[in-house]
C-alpha cells in the first residue's frame, strides 16, 4: 500500500513532468532558439560595426520591423490553418493606394481613408479565402493569382504613379511620430512600433481566447475532423483570410505613412520575408501550431540581419542570397520539428 508521503511525491513528480513537457514542446524550443539567435545577431553586428548600436540605426530597425512584423502577423493566421498567402505584400500596397485615392484624389477625411484601407484589405483577403474554401483552389495558386491581380490593380488605380500625401495633414504621424517621445524625449520610439506591439497583443488574444482562434488551430490540425463535427469550415476559413487581409491594411497604412506616399510598384517580395519570419518563430508550415510572440521574434531577426549586412557594406545581391538561405534553413528546421513531434 502506498503511503501518503509516497502519493504526494508521485503527484509532485507528475506535476513536474507535466510542467517540463509544456515548457520543452518543439514550438517552445523553437521560440527559445529564435530568441537566442536574435541575441547572437545583435551581439555579432555590434562587435562588427560600432554604428550598428547607434540610436538612429536602432530606430531604423524598429521602423522596418513594424511593417514586416505586421505582415508576418497576417501570415501567421493563414499559415496556422495549413494555408499560405503570397499576396500579403501586394495587398499591403493596394490598400495604401486605395487610401491615397480617398485622401489625395477625393480629399476625404483621414479617418475615412484609414477605414477604406482596412476594409479593402478585409475584402481582398475574404476573396482569397473564398477562392480557397468555396472553389477549392489550392492556397498557393489562389494567393499567387491575387498577388498578380493586386499588383496590376495598384498600377491601374494609381495610373502607374506614386500618390503623395503632402496635402493630408498629420498622415505621417501614423508611422513616424512618437507618442512615447512626447513624454520621454530620450526614447523616441516610432508610433509604428507601438502599433505593431498593440496588434501583436490583440492578435495573440484572438488566437488563444476566441472562437476564431480555436478554429484557426483546429483547421490546421485536422480540417476534415472539424468539418465532420458540423462546423461550417468554409465560413471560418473565409473569416480567417479576411482578418489576415485587414491586418495587411494596417501594414499598408504604416508603409504609406512612413514614405508619405503610396508606391504602386512596391510590395512584391515582402511576402517572402513575412513567411520566413513566421517559420523562424516556430509556426509550422503544415498548420496547427504557432504563436504571435514567435512571429515577432522572427520578424526582428529578419530586420536585424538585413540591417546588419547593410551596415557591414555587404552587397545587395549577397543580402538576397543570405535571406534565401535563412528561408531554406527555417523550413528545414520546421521539417525536423515535425518529425520529432
Characterize this entry briefly.
InterPro entries: ABC_transp_permease. This protein is mainly α and 341 residues long. The protein contains 13 helices and two strands.
Description of the molecule:
The chain has 341 residues and is mostly helical. It has a single domain (25-340), classed as ABC transporter involved in vitamin B12 uptake, BtuC (Orthogonal Bundle). The protein contains 13 helices and 2 strands. It has a two-stranded antiparallel sheet. The longest helix is centred in the C-terminal third of the chain and has 27 residues, at 233-259.
Question: How are the SSEs placed, and which strands pair?
Answer:
Blueprint: H1 4-23, H2 26-48, H3 55-80, H4 88-105, H5 110-133, H6 139-157, E1 163-164, H7 179-183, H8 191-209, H9 211-228, H10 233-259, E2 261-262, H11 270-280, H12 292-311, H13 316-340
Antiparallel strand pairs: 1-2
Task: Count every helix, treating DSSP H or I runs of 4 or more residues as helices.
Answer: 13
SSE order, as H and E?
HHHHHHEHHHHEHHH
Rg: 22 Å
Instruction: Briefly note the structural class of the backbone.
Output: mainly alpha
CATH topology: ABC transporter involved in vitamin B12 uptake, BtuC
Helix proportion range = over 70%
Major pleated sheet: 2 strands, antiparallel
Beta content? under 5%
Largest sheet: spatial strand order: 1-2
Low-confidence sequence ranges = 1-23
Shape: globular
The total strand number stands at 2
Oligomer classification: single chain
Distance between the termini: 37 Å
Number of separate domains: 1
Give the class-level CATH name: Mainly Alpha
Mean pLDDT: 88
